[in-house]
Write a structure and sequence with these properties.
The chain is an alpha/beta fold. The protein contains 17 helices and 13 strands. The chain has a four-stranded mixed β-sheet with strand order 1-4-5-13, with helices on both faces. The chain has a four-stranded antiparallel β-sheet with strand order 6-9-11-7, sandwiched between helices. It has a three-stranded antiparallel β-sheet with strand order 10-8-12. Helix 1 packs parallel to helix 3 and helix 5 crosses helix 12. The protein binds uracil (URA). The site of uracil has 6 residues, from helix 9.
Length: 435
Amino acid sequence: MGYRMYDLIEKKRDGGVLSSPEIKWMIDEYTAGRIPDYQMSAMTMAIFFKGLDKEETLNLTMAMTESGDTVDLSGISGIKVDKHSTGGVGDKTSIALAPLVASVGVHVAKMSGRGLGHTGGTIDKLESFPGFNTSITMDAFLKQVNDIGIAIMGQTKDLVPADKKLYALRDVTATVDQLSLIASSIMSKKLASGADAIVLDVKCGSGAFMKDLVSARALAEEMTELGRGAGRKVTAFITDMDEPLGLAVGNALEVKEAIDTLRGKGPEDFTELVMSLGAAMVHFAGIADSEEEARVLLSKSIENGDAINKLKEFVKAQGGDERAVDDMALLPSAKYEYELAADTDGFVESIACSEVGTASLLLGGGRLTKEDEIDLSTGIIMKKKKGMPVKKGEALALIYYNDEEKKEAAAARLKAAFKIGRVKPETNDIILGRI
Ligand code: URA
């Protein structure tokens, strides 16, 4: 059935509801290059103002999911569970979580992205292990999950091509920030990746897309409904991103923190997040009857070394140097360290989280354009987090750097991110809500 894009734009502009065949046609034609960007821009702007109802959002998600390759995980036994985070500063969760849940028997077949923004994505971070290969073939990926229970690869070129085009367009037409468009963009990629069950980590706060609890909950609900509408098991956690997650921000530094966490020596907030998401994944996989029971399994795996051994097995299977798990000096490390000191006494009242991310980016740890090379060694270790007392001259953070000029720019940014006050502020739990 053919439509005219003009008519569909007009319909949405006037607040109408697009039918399932209309949405499918639009996405297929746009992906094939037969609808020009200027018409799709008008459509995304019309959606921005008039919204999509639940059925339209599900239809859009399914049309996007079907716009390219979908991964068939049926050759892997058991319930395949995926996890997705909406992204934030210091988010190294997958690097600890994936081996941890795999160590108790969950099959993790995960596709991850590279980062555009403050730090790299999971794929960049994993490349901190010398030799680690994230561009493995689909056959090798599936075989590895069957052999050792875990594999992580970069998203293939043909996974949801509609989203690649649409996201790039939204990015330059001020239409990223629309709930249904965000939810369909994320969920189409998750659905195409083939897992039976999905655990979502929706970040909330100054370092996240969603700045407040109301909008984070709305996104979490929308994504959960989409996943369930597509026949998958889904749960969502809303988690704090008002300050960096854990203490490390920057690629190899975050990998080191993930390793410490798998040894039971991670920061409290990060450990709690990994255990909560992990318990949901283990429960979804049918390995434990409740999340409480799942937590016990995960704690045992950390204590008896299974978790850290699974990380080594995983790194080795993907060509990486697994000795770096025991000898972290084999991971990239920056030449210099600088201590950012407080210039007044008080309490850390707030930390402008995205500014910490920007400071890490300025050190070389993130990308401004897709072509930029990342410096995996640089970053920041937070010495003070929200609510902690500070004395003048005490370290707020350590900066790891290779270039003096970049360090100066990052230090100025980081200093401005810390607000020191006289009164101890309320602090948030890492888990703010659950759906
Ligand atoms: N991440 C995505 O993948 N898509 C969006 O629209 C926003 C964040």
